[in-house]
Amino acid sequence: MPLIGENKARETAVDQEQALGRFLAGIEKRAYRIAKLSLRDHDEALDVVQDSMISLAQNYAGHPDEQWRPLFYRILRNRITDYQRRRRVRQGVIAWWPGVSADDGPPDPVESAPDPSGTPDEQLEGEELLARIERALAGMSTRQREAFLLRNFEGLDVAQTAIAMGCSEGSVKTHYFRALQALQQLLGEWQT
Amino acid sequence: MTKKNQDFERRSRAAFDDSVASLDGATRSRLARARELALEEARRRVRPRLSTWVPVGAAAAAAVMAIALWSGRETGSAPAEPALAALDEFDIVSAGDDLDMMDEDPAFYDWAADELADDVS
Question: Is the ipTM of this complex over 0.85?
Fold first, then answer.
C-alpha cells in the first residue's frame, strides 16, 4: 500500500507534468516558426524544437512555471547556434572536397516561395512580408536576429529576452533597436 | 519608439501569428509527437526519484519512531538508582546462606554489637 507521502509526491509530479504539457503545447508552434526563420530548414527546425523540449523536461521541469519560457528560448537559441555552427563546418568541409556538392545549398526560390493558391489577398500580403523578413533576417547579425524574433514575434519582455539571449537588458534594447532599423531599411519599399 | 516602428512591429507580428496559425497538419503532428517525447522524459525522471526516496523516507520515519518509543519507555520508568537497589535486594534474597546464618547464630550479632560499643567507649 503506498504511503501518504508517496501519493502526495505522485500528485505533485502529475500536476507538474500536466502544466509542462500545457506550456509546451502553447509554445511549440511559435518555437518551430522561430527556429524555421533562423535555420530556414523545416526538418532542422523540428529537430531543434524537439531537442529543446526534451532538454527543458530533463533539466528544468521542477523549476517554477514562470521560468520555463525564457529558459526554453535560451535552450532553443543554443540549439539553433549549434546547428548553424555544424552547418558551417559541413559546408567548409564540402568546399574542400572536390566533386561533392552540398545538400543544403541556397534554397530553391520556386520551392520555398509561399503557395498563394486559395489564400485571401491580405494573407498573401502577410506571407509575402514574412518571406521578405525571413530573407532580411538571414543577412543580419545573430544577436539582432535573436532580439527581433524573441522580442517582437515571441513577445518576450526585455528581461526575459536577456535571459534567453544570455546578455544584459541594455544589450537587448540596443540589438532590438538596430534590428528594427535594419529591417525597415531593407524592406523600405514595403513601408507605405 | 516612433509610430513607423510601432506600425512595422504590429504588421510583422500579425504576419508571424498568421503563419503560426496556418501551420500544416504534418508539422503540427510532428510537434505533438515531440511534446509527448519530452513529457515521457519528464515522467522517466520523476519515477526513479519517487521509487528511491520514498522507501528511504519510510525507513527514516520508522527509525525516528523506534528511537522515540525507546526513549519514551526509559523516561516513563522508575529512576535508575531504585532499580539498581532492587537488583541488590534480589541478590541478597537469592543468596540463601546469609539468611541461614542469621537464623542459626544470633549470638554472633550480640557479640559484634558489644564489641562495637566497647570500641566507641
Answer: no
pLDDT of B47-103, one tens digit each? 655 555 666 667 777 888 788 777 766 555 545 555 555 555 555 455 444 555 555
Task: List pLDDT tens digits, range A108-131.
Answer: 554 444 444 444 455 557 788 889
The CATH number for A159's domain is 1.10.10.10
Q: CA B98, B99, B100, B102 torsion: positive or negative?
A: positive
A50 to B19: CB separation less than 8 angstroms, yes or no: no
- Asked which of A103, A129, A156 is the last residue of a domain, the reply is A103
Residue A162 inside a domain? The answer is yes
Q: Is residue A109 part of a domain?
A: no
Cell numbers at B15, concatenated: 504576419
Summarize pLDDT for A19-66 with one digit per residue, the tens. 999 999 999 999 999 999 999 999 999 999 999 999 999 999 989 999
Structural domain harbouring A56: 1-103
Distance from C-alpha of A55 to C-alpha of A104, rounded to nearest angstrom: 26
* Number of structural domains found in chain A: 2
The two most distant CA atoms of chain B are separated, in Å, by: 129
Inform me whether the C-beta atom of residue B97 falls under 8 Å from chain A C-beta atoms.
Answer: no
Domain residues of chain B, as ranges?
A: 80-121
Contact A17 B42 (CB under 8 A): yes
Number of C-beta neighbours around residue A31 at 10 A: 24
* Count of other CB atoms within 10 angstroms of residue A144: 20
CB-based contact, B56 to chain A, within 8 Å:
no
pTM: 0.65
Of B22, B27, B58, the CB nearest to A32: B27
Is residue A85 located within the same domain as residue A128? no
CB contact under 8 A, A42 and B12: no
Q: Do residue A57 and residue B14 have CB atoms under 8 angstroms apart?
A: no
| Domain annotation covers residue A111 | no
- Whether residues A54 and A132 share a domain: the answer is no
Q: How many CB atoms lie within 10 A of CB B11?
A: 16
Total CB pairs under 8 A between chain A and B: 116
pLDDT number for residue B66: 80
Of A30, A57, A123, the CB nearest to B41: A57
Q: Measured between CB atoms, which of B5, B31, B53 is closest to A28?
A: B31
Q: Are residues A146 and A62 in the same domain?
A: no
